[in-house]
Amino acid sequence: MPQSDLQYLAQIANTAPSQLRLVLTHQQQQRAYYYRRLGLLAGTVCFLACIGVFTYLVVMNHERSALAILGATVLSVVTLILKQKL
């Protein structure tokens, strides 16, 4: 019995680095996915906030300021979309 235990431990010792690499890679991929989702959520919240500010300024008769905010927001979004396509 002790010999089989030693063989098992030797096998684990040989495969542990590759398994550890797999675990670490998986954790990095999970973290990257989480950060991407968080970035998309933050971008969406900021975009909706800009639309809200635009609506508020239009209601308060500040059309020029509203157009500036909407123009900058839309221009930024279009620029980011084009950068991703190229």
How would you describe this protein?
By secondary structure, the chain is mainly alpha-helical. It has one domain (2-85). Helix content is 94%, strand content 0%. The protein has 2 helices and no strands. The chain has helices at residues 2-59, 63-85. The longest helix is centred in the middle third of the chain and has 58 residues, at 2-59. The mean pLDDT is 86.
Tally of individual domains: 1
Q: Mind telling me the C-alpha Rg?
A: 26 Å
Query: How much strand content do the residues show?
Result: under 5%
Largest sheet: none
Helix content: over 70%
Q: Secondary-structure element sequence?
A: HH
Structural class: mainly alpha
Low-confidence stretches: none
Number of helices: 2
- Residue-averaged pLDDT: 86
> How many DSSP-defined strands?
0
Shape: rod-shaped
Q: In whole angstroms, how far apart are the ends?
A: 63 Å
